[in-house]
Every structure is written in structure tokens, then in C-alpha cells.
Amino acid sequence: MSVPGDFYLTLSAVLFTIGAIGLLVRRNVLVMFMCVELMLNAANLAFVTFARELDDVGGQTAVFFVLVVAAAEVVVGLGIIVAIFRRRVGATADDIHVLKG
Amino acid sequence: MLHVAFLIPLFPLAGYGILTLAGRRLGNPLAGWLATAMVGASFVVTLVVFAGLFGRAPAHRSFQQTWWTWFSVDRLHVTAGILVDPLSMTMALFVTGVSTLIHLYSIGYMEHDPQFPKFFLYLNLFVAAMLLLVLGGNLLMTFLGWEGVGVCSYFLISFWFDRPSAASAGKKAMIFNRIGDAGFLVAMFLVFERTGSLQYTTVFSRLGHVGTPSLTASALLLFLGAAGKSAQLPLYPWLADAMEGPTPVSALIHAATMVTAGVYLMCRINPILFRAPDAAHTIAIIGGITAFLGATIACAQTDIKKILAYSTISQLGYMFLAAGVGAYVAAIFLMLTHAFYKALLFLGAGSVIHAMNDEQNTKAMGGLRALMPITAGTFLVAWLSIGGVPPFSGFWSKGDVLLNTYGYSPVLYALGALTAVLTAYYIGRCYMLVFTGNARWAEARASGDGHGHVVGGPVPAGEDAASVSPTAGHGEREHGALHPHEPSWVMTLPLLVLGVASALGGLINLPFHPTLVFLERWLDPVVGKTLFNHHFSAASEIGFACIDGVLAVVGVALAVTLWRAVADRPAVEPTFLQRAWYIDFGYDRLLARTSTRFAAFTSAVVERKVIDGAVNGVAAAFRRGGGVLRRVQTGYVRNYALGVMLGLVVLLAYVVSRSVS
User: Fold this and answer.
1) B75 touching A, CB under 8 A?
2) Helix or strand (DSSP H, E) at B553
3) pLDDT of A24-82, one tens digit each?
């Protein structure tokens, strides 16, 4: 017996929502970063589910791209975060607003 | 022999080119001699072509020389080329002839001017343009020359451009001519629209298919152009101010040649005028009024060149009167004789001005006859010619005009006859003031008045340009002792030649016998079909000639009686006439000041408020909008994330709503 696709999609939606809300409400940059990862992987889950349900390998291919891009994003994103923390210890996302108009 | 006609305008043009490149190197007086030689060569070529044309049968005395296709757009094909016929050759002959003499005279007159080569450069360019004007085979070629002489006129009026009065006189001439040129342009559009061509021969052959209103309109528009160029009402005031230019320029451009271009144009379009009698009537009336007006003003002027300028306006009025009446031969006849005696008057005036160290006020002259016998003698001949005293040339030409005018309208004849008396009078007044009486300049110098305004200072005719004393300016040599004397032979020779021409000019069209009217028979192929022909009996013709003679003698006698040994008669020099009927003054008040005020309004209100306002308003709107939108950029990551999120929701909602429906 296999788990129905609806479940995966629901899980995906829940994970995405948690990620989105976390991104919006948390101030810690690392946590926000993890939330972004959560949202990405929620999307991946949806892709894989659709690939299985529709029997189309395209969805799985898209996931590979997302994973590669996410890895690159982690490298750049963590690099930026480390650079910020070197300069201002314990900074939150709200402390970094030099682009304020 | 006729195919060399293209050389006629080419010689002065080449002179212009050489002087542009090497004028400074040639210097003084070589540049002048070169220019004179070029115009002289042009005169010789004209004589050759003239002789060639004379050798043909009268019916074949017209041929067109096409140089190249100027441009060709749709139906409009314009060729650069010339029309050689009796009319254009008559014009070319006297233009080159008088120009050669005046070039020669200028070598003497301008000898002390630092801009000597430039002066001859302009003069040569002027002659080239004038020859294009008279020889042009289509309206556009004529217009090319028309504009060419206009711009040379501007350059030469403003030749001493460091004098504000000369600079503004040049501008004034340009503006008045622009008004006329607009008429010329519109006339060309109309003629092309109606006949599909600008070539004179083609246009004239298609006139039968054109309605009278169109013909009247084109004739009147061309007359507007002619009125601008030839200083007729209402576009005449520039000519009086044009006297700011050097005197040879006044003689050549503003008396003998350029200003007669309008008359030439009227004679050239005689087939149109013939079919548009209303337009011709208007031209005759305006010509008659201008003749009278110019003569009255000339009676009260004190500046020697102003007298001659208004006299020119008056004489041009006579020519338009003749052209309007349809007496084209009389118009050309008067134009020729006028070219001789008016050039002579101006050159004589130049000689006097030269001798008087640039004094132009006749009231400060006097008694020069003994010191300058050649100038005085030739001036006397010119006076008797322009006054119409038999047997001088003016008697024949003006008599021809007046006779035809009588046949056309006795009222206009009366106006013309009255003007004839005034003409003999005002030039006589000028002659008496300058050459007879006491040597007032000697008293003036003795009393220490450097400018010698002894009696009645000059009252300017114009408001702006003329208000500066004409004595200020070029080449003023040593002050103090003044020894008037005859100028060198280069200046007296043209005087003598023109004197002979003025005296004997009538020979070309003597009315005694059909074989003697050379000019009429010569021009017959061009104007013969449209000529106004009123037959008078031999007795009445003699009667009219006697009346003309009496009128002239009355004018001469009046001048001699009033102005012998008297230099001041306020009673016959009313301010009203000295100020030229306040017409220029009126133009200044009505048009110039109104438009200046309008310009001030557009500058202060339209420019500052409307145009600047629009530009600044756009900028301010963007700045204010930016100030509001700036707040959106908080710099907080969460705000941006929220924006992205909301956008996502909106997109999602859109996709979902589409897939549902």
C-alpha cells in the first residue's frame, strides 16, 4: 500500500507555510536561512510527488536543479552571514538595513 | 555666338571666388581692379550676346540655355538655366555697364577703407546675383538671384557694421524684404499649382487654362515681392535707411540696379498682368501714390543721400505706374535712363561727401561749384535729366510714362504730373544747397563746429537707424582745414560717362518716327502683345510733351528762386515731410513696439510660466512622487520577504482562479 499523493502535497504545503512564516517572523539570520531551505525542500517534495503521480520524470529533474542551486545558495548565503557576524557580533536581520530609502 | 551667355553671370561669380580666396593678398587697389575687370568682361560678353541676338529675326530673338537639371520631384522639374531675350539682355546690358562704372568709381571712393577687398567681394557677388535674377529662365532662378541680391544688399548696407545705425539699417532692409519675399514664394507655389511649371515660357503658354482670380492673386503676390525689393508702399522705409551703406553701394544697389528688379519682374510677367487687369490697376495706383509720396518727402530732407533715396522711391513709383498701366516699354525706358542719372546723382553725391570729409548734410555745404566743376557739371546734367527738362533723357522717358498714364487714367496722370514738378524742384534744391551760395562749411569749421551743422540740424526720417549723425564713421581724416577738390580720375571718369548717358539716353526711344523707337521695337517680341496702346494724335502728343517741358521748367525755376543764396526756409520744409509723413514712425509705434511688447510677454509669461513651468512641473512631480515611494524601501529583509510572499499569493490566486473557471 502506498501513501496517497494528497498526503505528500499537504505535508509540502505545511512545510512551506512553516518556512514562510518563520522567514517573516524570526529575526535571527541563521534561522531565517534555515526557513528558506525549508521552503525550497517543501517545493522539492511537491515536485517529486507530482513526478510520481503523473509518471513524469521532469519533476525529479527539476528537483536536481533546485538542489544544485540551493547548495550554491547556501555557500553564498553562509559566506555573507559569516562576513556580517565577523563585523557585528549578535546582529539580527533588522540591524542590517542600510538600503533604507 | 549666343552660347557664351552663361559667361555673363560667371565672370562676376569667378571674381567673387577669387576675392574670397585671395582678396587680402591682392589687397588695395589690386582687388578693386580685378573686380572691375571681371564685371567689365561680363559687360563685353553681354555686348557680344546682344549683338548676336540683334542679328536674328525679331521672332527668333529668344532662346533658353539649360545648364543642368537643378532638381526633379514628382511633377516639379526645375532646370538651372537662363532665358536670353530682348528684355533680359536689355537688363543685363545696363546692369553690367553701370556696375563696371561704379566698380571703377569705388576703387577711388573706398581707397582709405581697411576692408577694401571685402567690399569688392560683395560687389562682385551682387552683380553675379543680379545677372542671375535678370537672366533666370524660370521663377526659381530669378528667386535665387532675388535672394542673392537681397543678402548682398544686407552685407553692403551693414558694411560699416561697427556703426549701430548701419547694422540696424541692414536688419531693417532684410526684414522688409523678407515680407516681400514671402509673397514671391507663395506666388511661385500658386503658379506651379495652376500651370505645373515654373519655366517662364511654359507658364505663359498655359495661362489660358488658369482662372482670373488665380492670376490676380499671383500677380498681386509677385507685386508684394516687387514692392519689398523696389521699396514701394507699404514696404518702402528700408530704402531711406539703406543709405547707411557706402555711397557707391547706394548708387549701384539702392538706385540703379537692385531696386529696379521689382519693375523687371512686373515686365517679365506681363502676360499674367495682361490677364489680371485688377492686379495691374492696383499696381498702377500704388506706384502713382508712392511716386508722389517719395517726391514730397524728398522736398524736405537735408541729408544729401536721403534726398536721393526718396527720389529713388519716387522714380520707382513712376516705373510701377507705367508697368501697371501696361506701358512696359516706358517702364524699362525710365528704368534705363533712371539708372544713368540716379547713379550719376549718387556718384556725384559720393564725390561731394568724399571731398567734405564724410559730411552729408546739405545745409553744411554750399559753394562747391567753383571747387568741383566736373562734379557740379555732371550733377547739373543729372538734375535736368531727372527733372525732365528737354532734351535730356528724363524728358523722353518720363514723358512716355505720363502719356501712357493719361490714356489709362487722367487722375493718375495728374498725380504723376504734380510729382514731375516736385522732382525737378527737390533735386534742384539739393543742387542749389550743395553747389551754389556761400561756402557754409568754411564758416562751420571756423566757428569750431566740427560736424558743421550750421543751419537746421538734420531731422531723421526714421526713428532708430537714422537718428545717429551721418558724419560719424569711416575714414575720417584730418579735421580742421577742409579743402574740397575733385577726386581722382577713377571717380570722375564714371561721372563723365554717366553724364553723357544721362544727357543722351533719350536717343534709344525717340517718339518722332516709328523707326526711331528702338527700344519699343527691340522689346516688341517680349511685351508687344500685352502692351497698353492708346493712340494719340500727333498734335496731342506734342501738346503733352510741351506740358511736360513746362512742368519741368516750373520745378527748376522754383528751386532756383527759392534756394539761391538761401539755405534755410522752414516754410517749405515742414516737419511733417522731414519725418516722412510719420509713416516710419507709425510702423515703429504700431508694429515694432507692439511686437517687442508681445515678445516681452512671451518671454516673461509664456517662456517662464508655461514652458519652464511644464518642464519644472514634471521634475517636481517626479521628485514628490519619489519622496512618497521612498518610504517603501524600509531596508528590512522581512518587509521584502513579505512583499515576495504577497506577490506569490496573488500569482497563485490568479493561476488557481483561471484553472477553476
Assistant:
1) no
2) helix B538-563
3) 888 888 898 899 999 999 999 999 999 998 988 999 999 999 999 999 999 999 998 88
Residue B46 CB contacts under 8 Å (≥ 6 apart), including other chains: B8, B89, B92, B93, B96
Q: Which of A12, A97, A98 to probe the B interface (max B CBs under 10 A)?
A: A97
Q: Distance (Å, rounded) from C-alpha B446 to C-alpha B32?
A: 37
The partner residue sitting opposite A101, judged by closest CB among B631, B638, B642, is B631
Identity at B658, one-letter amino acid code: R
Q: What are phi and psi of B76, to 5 degrees?
A: -90, 110
Q: Which of B65, B17, B21, B24 is nearest to B38 (CA)?
A: B17
Cα–Cα distance between B630 and B497 in angstroms, integer?
88
Its pTM stands at 0.77
Average pLDDT value for chain B: 87
Burial of residue B613 (CB within 10 Å: 0-12, 13-18, 19+) is middle
B634 interface with A at CB cutoff 8 Å: yes
**SS3 letters across B233-260:** CCCCHHHHHHHHCCHHHHHHHHHHCHHH
pLDDT at B476: 41
Cell readout for B306 is: 536721403
Copy the grid coordinates of residue B308.
536721393
- Beta strands of B404-534 (E only): which ranges? none
Q: Can you spell out the DSSP letters for A22-86? A: HHHH---HHHHHHHHHHHHHHHHHHHHHHHHHHT-THHHHHHHHHHHHHHHHHHHHHHHHHHHHH
Torsions phi, psi for A19 (to 5 deg): -60, -45
CA distance B530 to B328: 9
The confidence score (pLDDT) of residue B381 equals 93
From the centroid of its chain, how far is CA B260? 7
Q: Give phi and psi for B70, each to the nearest 5.
A: -75, -55
Distances (CA, A) of B455 to B404, B428, B451, B568: 42, 19, 12, 7
CA distance B287 to B331: 11
| B628 interfaces chain A, CB cutoff of 8 Å | no
Complex ipTM = 0.83
Q: What is the mean pLDDT of residues B130-139?
A: 92
- Grid cell digits, residue B151: 543678402
